[in-house]
Amino acid sequence: MDVILVAGTPGDLHGLVRPVAERVATVMSVADAWVFIPPSSHAGGREAKVASSYLGVRRAVGPLESLKYLAAGVAPRGFARCGKGVVIHLGGDLIYSIGLGRRLRYPVFAYTGRAMSGAKSVSLFLVEDERVQASLIARGVDAERIKLVGNLIVDGVGVRPGREEARVRLGIEQHGRSVMLFPGLSRREVSVTAPFLFRAAELLARVEQEVSFTMCLPPFVGTASLEQLFAHTRYAARIDGAAARVEKSAGPLEAVTAEGVRIRIETVLMYEAMAASDIAVCTPGPVCAELAYLGVPHVVTAPLNVPGAVAVPGVSPLLCSLPFIGEAFQRRAVDRLKASSRFVSSVNQRAGRIIAPEIVGRVRPEDVVIPCVELLGEAARRDKMSKELREAVGLAGAADRVVQAIQRVALSQQ
């Protein structure tokens, strides 16, 4: 059986494709999971390579091969239609998944955390929560075509590492204070937000003594040319930041800023780095749900000083990057986002209110430092936020329910 997983952005691949592919491999030994990656303005070029490394994935098909197959029927290397299968839409423009479903003559399932168009071409909606379920029904989707599965992202975390255990694995002092920094999932996003967060770390280190910092870099970014990525030259005129040099030793990589603040670079034990932290600062994306599931208080920041660089829900990066008009378009899009009381954090969206503070727009490092100082200084507030985040993010098990839906298709196609 062919299980075709469709997602375009690093966030969708990391947060949604990975847990589904792993569960398919565990439960459905006869299934072949293929990942089709349509074009995305947030792609950095490493998506197919990274997704091909996921457990259970036969191969990830890049944007060019995906388009050739959709437009002309040119089969990707190694791919042959089995005759039985399903297309699972996990992110990006639904039109690509619908096109694949028609090309392959397979039903299309769509996992979604929000209401979406194209309902007539979707056989089954796999939804995150009752909020989305009610929204789809209000749009005319039959309740029989909606299955409540939960939050897929938390399944990707796996077994929650405890704080003490995580600190032992990372070599972090048990009673010290630790701040985790997450600058994004693509190289362009990191080139903007990493210097911004380095500067925030410098300012925080001035007022908070004995604080250690860890920056998590996902595989979509890689560790090649980090010095260039951290140089803070290309966007220095637009966003306040600090450059950092990279020190390589027998231990983990470290970024060292001009003020001497040392920031551990973690590329492998990222969930341990999250769990070990007292607080975190992150950009919007799957990491918000991951931190919430781990109960880590955090601040979400989306510095939009460089139009289109940081992924924000509901804001088109392609239009924001257009010369002359892109910045104005981004400003209007963010204003509409705020006016509609929508949040950039998926956890805040799910809760319908602000749990984790959000710093969005043309911002300065100081804007991020202020809530960080407040959180570090108030243990009771951190505990309260941790509890509310865990309650808001939902329970694990969504991948199992998605696989159950795939298994029903397999039975019907026998």
Keyword list:
alpha/beta, 414 residues, 17 helices, eight-stranded mixed β-sheet
Overall shape: it is globular
What percent of residues are in strands? Answer: 15-25%
CA radius of gyration: 21 Å
Q: Which regions contain 5 or more consecutive residues with pLDDT less than 50?
A: none
| Amount of helix | 40-55%
How many helical elements?
17
What is the count of β-strands? 15
Q: Whole-Å distance between the termini? A: 10 Å
Topology of helices and strands:
Layout: E1 2-6, H1 10-27, E2 32-36, H2 47-52, E3 57-61, H3 63-72, E4 85-89, H4 94-104, E5 108-112, E6 124-127, H5 130-138, E7 146-148, H6 152-157, H7 163-170, E8 177-182, H8 187-207, E9 211-216, H9 226-229, E10 244-247, E11 254-257, E12 262-266, H10 270-275, E13 279-282, H11 286-294, E14 298-303, H12 317-320, H13 326-339, H14 346-351, E15 358-361, H15 365-377, H16 379-393, H17 398-412
Parallel strand pairs: 1-2, 1-4, 2-3, 4-5, 5-6, 6-7, 8-9, 8-13, 9-12, 13-14, 14-15
Antiparallel strand pairs: 10-11, 11-12
Task: Please give a structural write-up.
The mean pLDDT is 90. Helix content is 42%, strand content 17%. It contains 17 helices and 15 strands. The strands form 2 sheets. An 8-stranded mixed sheet has the order 10-11-12-9-8-13-14-15, with helices on both faces. Strands 3-2-1-4-5-6-7 form a 7-stranded parallel sheet, sandwiched between helices. It is globular. α1 packs across α17, α8 packs across α15 and α11 packs across α16. It has 414 residues and is an alpha/beta fold.
